[in-house]
Amino acid sequence: QVQLVESGGGLVQAGGSLRLSCASSVFSFSEYAMGWFRQAPGKEREFVAAISWIGTYTNYADSVKGRFTISRDNANNTMYLKMNSLKPEDTAVYYCAADRGGSIRTTPTSYTYWGQGTQVTVSS
Questions:
Q1: What confidence score (pLDDT) does residue 102 get?
Q2: From CA 13, how far away is CA 2, in angstroms rounded?
Q3: Among 69, 64, 57, which Cα is nearest to 38's?
Q4: Neighbours of 117 (CB within 10 A)
Q5: pLDDT (tens digit, 9 = 90+) per residue, 20-77?
Q6: What DSSP letter does each residue of the chain carry, written as one string?
Q7: Quick check: 26 and 33 in contact, CB under 8 A?
Q8: Interval 64-115: pLDDT, tens
Q9: How far is C-alpha 95 from the geometric centre of its chain's CA atoms?
Q10: How far apart are CA 90 and CA 96, in angstroms?
């Protein structure tokens, strides 16, 4: 059973920064593709960023490209999302996701394991 635990969310002013972390319990963390998704109230869960199993490849939603950076530390079973230049429209619950296999995935249905989410609120 893979457990994912997000942390690092909070309240920040527009233009500010946050770094989210996703810690995994899985022994073979480097064998899992990982991703970040977010869900705002009344909206569907949407793709934010994804990273391949050893971090060679990344993919971003157009809405965050140039502002967010996804990375992973396989030695410590942790994935990160550095968020800069935050906007009020970035406000959402952010979830990390994992699925066995190396390739990039950008849809929620392509991930098997999910964290409980961490709230990010950006004030204007």
A1: 75
A2: 34
A3: 64
A4: 18
A5: 999 998 778 889 999 999 999 999 999 999 999 988 899 999 999 999 999 999 999 9
A6: ---EEEE--EEEETT--EEEEEEE--TTGGGEEEEEEEE-TTS--EEEEEE-TTSS-EEE-TTTTTTEEEEEEGGGTEEEEEE-S--GGG-EEEEEEEEEBSS---SGGG--EE---EEEEEE-
A7: no
A8: 999 999 999 999 999 999 999 999 999 999 999 999 987 899 999 999 999 9
A9: 6
A10: 15
Q: How far is CA 84 from CA 26, 51, 72, 123, in A?
A: 29, 18, 17, 14
Residue for token pair 């909070």: 10
Contact 34, 48 (CB under 8 A): no
- Give yes or no for a contact between 81 and 19, defined as CB atoms under 8 angstroms apart: yes
CA distance 70 to 105: 14
DSSP output for 38-59? EE-TTS--EEEEEE-TTSS-EE
pLDDT score recorded for residue 54 = 87
| Residue showing tokens 């929620």 | 108
